[in-house]
Amino acid sequence: MTKRVFIQTLAALAVSAATCGSAFAQNTPIKFQLDWRFEGPAALFVTPAAKGYFKDAKLDVTIDAGNGSGGTVTRVASGSYDVGFADLAALMEFHANNPDAANKPVAVMMVYNNTPASVMALKKSGIKTVADLNNKKLGAPVFDAGRRAFPIFAKANNISGVQWTAMDPPLRETMLARGDVDAITGFTFTSLLNLE
Q1: Which of 3, 48, 159, 184 could be disulfide-bonded to 154 (CB atoms 3.0-4.6 Å)?
Q2: CA distance 21 to 104
Q3: pLDDT tens-digit profile of 92-129?
Q4: Cα angle vertex 90, ends 135, 48, to 5°?
Q5: Of 31, 19, 29, whose CA–CA distance to 81 is shortest?
C-alpha cells in the first residue's frame, strides 16, 4: 500500500466521522488504536505520523498501543477510538457475538496477505506435524488470535486432548522455553523475536 492510498483511506474515514462542516477548517482529531504494542507492523501507522503526513492532510492522529485485537475492535465499537488496527478474526467474532450492537466496526483494508497467527514449538518438544499437537499442553493469553482460532484449526485437523494454559503476554515465550507448555500460539513476528 502506498503512502498516498493510506492517507487517502484515513482521510476518508475522518471525513465520514466528522459531525460538522468546521472539520474542514481545522485539523480533524482521530484516535487510532493499534492491536498490540509498538512493533514492526505499527510502522505503517507511526511512520506517517512521525513524518508529518497526517498533519499535512489536516489530520490530528493520536496513536495508542493496544492489548489485543479483540480489545481494539471493542474500543472502536464503543466509540472510544475512531479507527483501529485489528485482526479480521476479532472483527468477525465481535459481529457474531454482538448482532444487535449499535456501532459495528467494519474492515476497510487488509494489511497481511496471510494471518501471522501460528502454533510454535521448540525442537526439543518433538512436535513436527499438526498431528503431534494431540494431547499436548499449549499456552497463550486468552485473547490471542491464534488461540481464539484454534478450535477451528483443531476440528479441521482432527486434533483433540489439547490442554490450554493461560498467561500474560510477556510470559508466553518464557513458559515455552522453560518447558511449562509444549507449544504456544502467537504472531510469528512477535514470538520468534521474543524467543531470540
Answers
A1: 159
A2: 24
A3: 999 999 999 999 999 999 888 888 889 999 999 999 99
A4: 125
A5: 31
Cα separation, 42 vs 46, whole angstroms:
6
Phi-psi region of 162 (alpha: psi -120 to 50; beta: other; left: phi over 0): beta
The answer to whether residue 13 scores a pLDDT higher than 70 is: no
Q: What mean pLDDT do residues 165-182 have?
A: 96
The answer on pLDDT for 27 being more than 90 is: yes
3-state SS, residue 111? coil
- The structure's pTM equals 0.75
Sheet order of strands, 83-84 included: 59-64, 28-33, 83-84
Task: Say if residues 124 and 166 touch (Cβ distance below 8 Å).
Answer: no
CA distance 101 to 72: 15
Give the separation between CA 37 and CA 116, rounded to whole angstroms. Answer: 15
The Cα 53–Cα 3 span in angstroms is: 9
Alpha helices in the chain (DSSP H): 3-17, 43-50, 53-56, 69-78, 88-97, 145-156, 172-178, 188-195
Extract the C-alpha cell encoding 36: 498490540
**Amino acid symbol at 23:** A
- Which is nearest to 143 in space by CA: 118, 162, 168? 168
Residue 142, CA distances (Å) to 69, 120, 147, 184 in order: 12, 16, 7, 12
